[in-house]
Amino acid sequence: MISAFDNDKDRKTIIANQQLDDSKKRLKKLNNDIEKLKKSIQESSGVNPGDNNLVNDVDNVTNNEVTEEDINSVNLTEYKADLEQALEEEIKRKESIIKSIQQYQAAKTSEPIELNQELKTVELSIESKKKDIEKITKGDDACKQLLKKKIAEQNQIHEYNGHKFRTKKFINNLNVCSCCNDNVYGLQGQECTVCKTICHKYCQSYLKNTCQEVVLLNKTKPMYYMAIDKNDKARWVQGLEYFRSEWEKSKS
How far is CA 214 from the centre of its chain? Predict the structure, then answer.
């Protein structure tokens, strides 16, 4: 096969520019849709567009407020046990990544950027879990109450289009919104607890596929492969099956 690019850097630059242009087009469409929704709300409610008392539900995407009952129902002892177990797994994962990096260094080859990014992500996750454990063991009542509220907010589930969404803190920029294809970071995103669809909170209303459709799609085998020959196709299939099995292990 003959490459259409002079080198890999040119290819990545062209792809990045194409993704940027696509994102700008999607953003423009979203802004146009928002303006149409604003106009529709104003017309249906009979409110003057210049009225400052207009409540704009389009600009403000908020979760339902957690109640005192939700907060008090949080069991910090169970949460601490889950944190300690997750922390132990993250530490093992960190050690494995460091070992891989050291193997690359021993071979005097540059380690992949992905490994370094993954290491930083794991370190941030470990630090976050340690802080929460410290709040539970050493924090005062006010600190614990705030932690309970945070947990209650994260555990809160709301349904849309069959999806059961829960707010999730994304600590790296590798997660992509299913609607606008832009990165999801921090607490601006949510994940379906069933099909694992990820999207921005403000993109939720643009979701087209139901939860059931996504689950079915995830179980459907690819109908075609971008392969050079049958051997290349076999390698693709083997790789897909491996990553699917790894993903299944990570859920259990």
Answer: 16
